[in-house]
Design a protein that fits this description.
Length: 392
């Protein structure tokens, strides 16, 4: 059995690295070289034309970056993958490479803040028509998709109230309308959810979050069919938002422990969600693993773990109540990031929805007393004790 036929945990370690490297190195080298030299002119031409495997110039492709792309490709089960300097770079390059003036996009209101800005500001400026549906109203999404669209863009679980979209159902609607179905799988990771198996055409990640896992590198990646990925690659190569080889190395290193980290975070988050649900200082908990969560049944169907992201409303229901709890927490980074080994928390007002006014957040159904809590791999007893003292 080849290591690439193995289960996810084996793939996280071996995929893309099932060979020796330069000088028999067992680990992927960080190739900082900008260009790759050829003494044989014919070979140079063949590589340049893509007739033979190899690298020409690191804005296009690079050996370290290619290993990262191959690892994620195998974890999600795509035909091909391409990457970019950040999550937003891969999202914007994908949308701008596949859309033309006059095209229509259907998506939901609860996408990542930067993605929402593309939908509300930058795509309309290019004469692309964007319809954003209520996130949990699957009938409305299906009805909009049936009117015709070039792209159906989905994200699940969402930020910051952790809503769940039914990927199988919506991908089917997208396919029936001839749309390209794209899923941002950042929150779930390939360990908990595989959108390509549920019918999506493309799955993308802000690799900055769980894939890296250590909050020390930025990156974005997308995988799907060779045909679609080659279009996105051709655009990204020219626009130039390439992933740095050092970032790719950190991603590769981080991804070797992806399954261990995510399984621990799933466990910790479930226990913390149950703990918070019964805490007198908490008004409401948003976590798809809880049976009273509106997306619980769909999450059970499409996810193999509920993830490490949760949010909760502090009793009192004001921004000041959230701040009081946040500043009292001891085992936490108060920062605008998520998916790392350490627990990270913040209010939507300074993290996911920093661009919005309080009124806009209210209109989007984001409570002012909400705390987004990205559960780390710490001992869960310590995290619970910390939350308990901060909420009391
Ligand atoms: C952070 C994030 C992004 C953007 O990624 P960057 O690497 O910060 O550009 C996109 N989608 C989701 C769900 C995210 O959490």
């Amino acid at each position: 059995m080849s290591k690439t036929d193995c289960k996810l945990g084996t793939k996280t370690v071996w995929a893309g690295e099932d060979r020796l490297f330069e000088g028999n190195a067992t680990q992927t080298p960080v190739v900082h070289s900008v260009s790759f030299g050829y003494d044989d002119m014919e070979q140079w031409m063949d590589v340049a034309l893509g007739k033979q495997a190899g690298h020409i110039y690191s804005r296009n492709t690079n050996p370290t970056v290619s290993v990262f792309e191959e690892k994620l490709r195998q974890l999600e089960g795509g035909e091909a993958a391409t990457s970019a300097s950040t999550g937003m770079a891969i999202i914007s390059n994908t949308l701008f490479s596949l859309l033309a003036p006059g095209d229509r996009v259907v998506s939901v209101k609860d996408t990542y803040g930067g993605t929402n800005r593309l939908f509300t500001e930058f795509l309309p400026r290019q004469n692309v028509n964007v319809t954003l549906c209520e996130t949990e109203d699957f009938d409305a999404i299906e009805a909009e998709v049936a009117k015709g669209c070039k792209i159906l863009y989905l994200e699940t679980p969402t930020n910051p109230t952790i809503k769940i979209l039914d990927l199988e159902r919506l991908a089917k609607a997208g396919k029936a309308a001839g749309a390209i179905v794209i899923v941002d799988n950042t929150f779930a990771t390939p360990i908990n959810q595989n959108p390509l198996k549920l019918g999506a055409d493309l799955v993308l990640h802000s690799a900055t979050k769980y894939l890296s896992g250590h909050a020390d590198a930025l990156g974005g990646i997308i995988t799907g069919s060779k045909e679609l990925i080659s279009k996105i690659y051709a655009y990204r190569e020219i626009v130039g938002g390439t992933m740095h080889p050092m970032a790719a190395y950190l991603m590769i290193r981080g991804m070797k422990t992806l399954k261990l980290r995510v399984e621990k975070q799933n466990e910790n988050a479930m226990e913390i969600a149950k703990f918070l649900e019964n805490h007198p200082g908490v008004e409401r908990v948003f976590y798809p693993g809880l049976e009273n969560h509106p997306g619980h049944d769909v999450a059970v169907k499409q996810m193999s773990g509920f993830g490490g992201m949760l949010s909760f409303m502090v009793k009192g229901n004001t921004y000041e109540d959230a701040c009081r709890c946040l500043t009292r927490l001891k085992i936490v980074r108060r920062a605008a990031n998520l998916g790392s080994v350490e627990t990270i928390a913040g209010p939507p007002a300074t993290t996911s929805h920093v661009e919005c006014t309080a009124e806009e957040r209210a209109a989007m159904g984001i409570p002012e007393s909400l705390i987004r809590y990205s559960v780390g791999i710490e001992d869960v007893e310590d995290l619970k004790a910390d939350l308990d003292q901060a909420l009391s």
